[in-house]
Specification:
The structure is a homodimer.
Chain A (H helix, E strand, L loop, with lengths): L6 H8 L3 H9 L9 H14 L5 H8 L4 E6 L9 H12 L4 E6 L12 H4 L5 E4 L7 H10 L3 E3 L9 E3 L1 H14 L5 E5 L7 H17 L4 E4 L7 H11 L5 E4 L2 H13 L9 E6 L12 E4 L2 H17 L8 E3 L2 E3 L9
Chain A binds a DNA duplex (16 and 16 nucleotides) through helix 2 and helix 4.
DNA sequence: CTGAAAGCGCTTACAG
DNA sequence: CTGAAAGCGCTTACAG
């Protein structure tokens, strides 16, 4: 490993003091930096010798890191798709920030204590993509860090973002009404309707139904993946009056679609199916399954934006930000042309 | 923002020199640290005042960051699932390393130059999850960083990991043979068989076919998602002799499954279907689609392991590491019991 | 416009 | 076992 070039090396070569080099190279717009001749010489030498500032020195001096932390725990307690990650990194990069992943051992209480984050100050702010409700202990540990904290996937009043699940369900419901369906059901096999986002979706459906003055039916259950085909069979045997279904996960929606195919139930004439997706799976079906698409990339960008804004004005917390889904209409709810 | 507690603060309170505090708190196993009495007092005060070491100071002094960079570009040029990320962060955390995401603007040449990584030394090593072949310029820029570089998703001889795609295809082929199928076809609609991983899969199939002394057919094409249902219809019209298909993506496999359902083709008696998956989608079908499952989490762990090993011995590069898929058998290739 | 000083927090020799 | 010194690379006042 070759010894790296420092500001002093350049200063020596040009024949000025290190401070001058610092000002010229990183001084920003301050006019009083150096006279043109020297400035150009410094830049030239820096480029020639491949000078790269040593961030640790800057950090130590400035007390700022230009880095935002992301707290990651067990894989089933956070949600951070590749697209969201890309959006986040892109947004942060525009202000020269990087993102640092901190692994929190265990799922619950000792979460933060074990991570290097709490032992060594390393970031200017922290992003938390947890799905589950944070423990009191985590919250108090976070407070002790004295840095801004932004929550993804959480409907807190301040410093949080969330996907507009209610709006997504409402949008699907409205679409089905528009297509002429009246007996609309909502099916959840993933957890008895207990998840926060499922509850929000149900609220959206209630609201849409009220707006249109129509009814709807809820079918909430917890059924293991392996047992879903049988559950769907039974559903189609007994719920003959259902015209249209909003299925809470695309994977369950696929089971409905495939079972309907096998039973020669016509899609969408006999049964319409709509669901929720990240945009990469709804169209891996024939016909496409009409879906509310999660704005993953925009979610990342928006998170970055929020963190940066928060860092500009550290004292002031920001109101909850809500991201809308996008409707993708497929042959599962509208007859193809 | 309250002023943070430093080593000197603790030293003052206990009445010793800062060095003593440093040795006691971070000295490792060196016996000659301080006498027991003082040691305990220091630890007590540190805990009481919530001391956290300031990493920038350590970095500057030690010249090491305890941080590994991950280079992220445009979302379609890298592959980093949430599970891989979790495995990576978990593995690094065991040695107290964190991972820092660096965004590379643009896709190709200016990749690294624009990122903060190349401008400020911040990491001890770099992980690159790019899918496409890196440009010469990127490679030379990486060399100029003088830190170890580990490639994910690339079959380079050294300092790289890759998924054993050939082995995965071979495994599926063997399974189909075992189930008694003889006319086995490989279908790719995603790019004429041009992708590296597709080519490797074909090699695996060739090898397995040779081992068993049987033939196979290749159906390579580039068909947009919207046109795949029609392509599948046509395929099933014309290729009546195909007994079993290995489909290059699960999304295309689903189209085959659903079209077969609609046409009353029996799965798996008339047609067996096998594919590749990350483990979360193959079972969102009825029947489950037999798949070679990518070991995403293990991939992350293995990458972490490789980087850490490389950092222990910076001079020595490591041989390519290959990760095996896992076979998940579903009703699409074997009649369910 | 330019230079000398001081210090961010930490740890590694070195001398007692 | 303990303390005083020195310095990692950088930037911010301050004085010329």
């Amino acid at each position: 490993m070759k010894k790296a070039v420092t500001i002093s090396d350049i200063a020596k070569e040009v024949g000025v003091a290190p401070q001058v080099v610092s000002r010229v190279l990183h001084g920003g717009k301050s006019t009083a930096s150096a006279r043109k001749e020297i400035r150009e010489q410094i830049k030239e030498v820096a480029a020639k010798r491949g000078y790269r500032p040593y961030a640790a020195g800057q950090m130590l001096r400035k007390g700022t890191f230009k880095s935002v932390g992301i707290l990651i725990g067990h894989a089933d307690n956070f949600l951070l798709s590749q697209l969201t990650l890309a959006g986040l990194a892109e947004g942060l990069a525009e202000k020269e920030y990087t993102a640092t992943l901190f692994h929190a051992k265990g799922q619950s209480d000792s979460a933060l204590l074990d991570s290097r984050l709490i032992t060594s100050k390393l970031t200017d702010a922290l992003i938390i993509p947890y799905i589950r409700k944070p423990s009191r202990r985590l919250i108090s540990e976070l407070k002790s860090l004295h840095i801004p904290v932004i929550w993804m996937n959480r409907r807190s009043r301040h410093d949080a973002l969330h996907m507009n699940e209610a709006g997504a369900a409402e949008m699907l419901f409205n679409h089905l009404i528009e297509q002429g369906y009246r007996d609309i059901g909502f099916v959840d096999y993933s957890g008895n309707g207990e998840d926060t986002h499922t509850q929000e979706r149900i609220i959206g459906i209630e609201k849409a139904a009220e707006n249109h003055g129509v009814g709807f039916s809820l079918h909430l259950d917890r059924i293991a993946r392996a047992d879903r085909p049988a559950a769907v069979q039974k559903f189609l045997d007994t719920q003959k009056n259902a015209q249209a279904l909003i299925v809470n996960s695309l994977s369950a929606a696929q089971i409905f679609l495939q079972t309907a195919h096998q039973r020669k139930i016509r899609i969408p004439q006999d049964l319409a199916i709509a669901s929720f997706d990240d945009g990469s799976h709804f169209n891996a079906n024939t016909p496409y399954i009409t879906s509310a698409i999660r704005p993953d990339f925009a979610f990342g960008r928006s998170t970055a934006d929020m963190v940066l804004r928060r860092l500009e004005d550290p004292g002031k917390s920001l109101p909850l930000r809500s991201l809308d889904f996008e409707l993708q209409i497929g042959g599962s709810t509208r007859e193809e042309i």
